[in-house]
Amino acid sequence: MTRQVTRGGNPSRITEAELQQAVVTLGRLLGFKLIYHTHDSRHSAEGFPDLVMVSARHKRVLFVELKSEKGQLSEHQTIWFAELLAAEAEVYVWRPKDWQNGTIEHILKGGHIDS
């Protein structure tokens, strides 16, 4: 069982599993009824994002990769993200700092981040 992730403190102390649980919990609270995560990626397409989050009510589908503060996208993840972005999908790489500074909540509530 993972501990509850809150804002404040050192983002590098939040594990990817804890971040994922926090994102899934908040996503469900905000209307994302379908959230998919491949539990064993050994037999799945390399590089597929960690989460696919669907809200029919808000007409949104998000593809999310969760990383530690220092984690980098693999070559296959980069290809998936490039193709999804080219298809105009909503694609994000979220890190613990994005949870703590409110970015994730802002996006899940329908906000956009300027690149």
Total of DSSP H or I helical runs spanning 4+ residues: 4
Shape estimate: globular
Tell me the β content: 15-25%
Order of helices and strands: HEEEHEHH
Estimate the mean pLDDT confidence: 89
Helix content: 25-40%
Low-pLDDT regions: none
User: What is the terminal-to-terminal distance?
Assistant: 35 Å
Characterize the main sheet: 4 strands, mixed
Assigned CATH architecture: 3-Layer(aba) Sandwich
Number of domains: 1
Radius of gyration: 14 Å
Number of strands: 4
Report the CATH C-level class. Alpha Beta
Nutshell version of this structure?
With 115 residues, this protein is an alpha+beta fold. 32% of the residues lie in helices and 17% in strands. It has helices at 16-29, 75-86, 96-100, 103-108; strands at residues 34-36, 51-55, 60-66, 90-94.
